[in-house]
Input
Amino acid sequence: KKAGAVVLAGGSPLEGEGYFYPPTILTNVAEGTRIVDEEQFGPVLPVMPYSTLDEVIERANNSEYGLGASVWSSNLDRAQEVASRLEAGTVWINNHSE
Output
């Protein structure tokens, strides 16, 4: 929020012990912010616009992290092409973490 992100869902810690958040969706998120640049292990999804497929693949691969990635599409051939270009330990198509 400090960097201008807009919370569309979630965003506030759950009550109780620990550091637990509900699934959270953020928009208006900029490159260079921690939620984009650092690997996060929470149910948080920053939604960022892009102009071209090459641009978004370059941005996705421009990270020192990359344990896993997911590609979502109704066009499986296109999704497989995109997945093959991502530099991640595991890339799922229309799924995540199975």
Observations:
- The longest strand covers residues 6-9.
- The chain has a mean pLDDT of 90.
- The beta strands are 6-9, 24-27, 44-46, 68-71, 90-93.
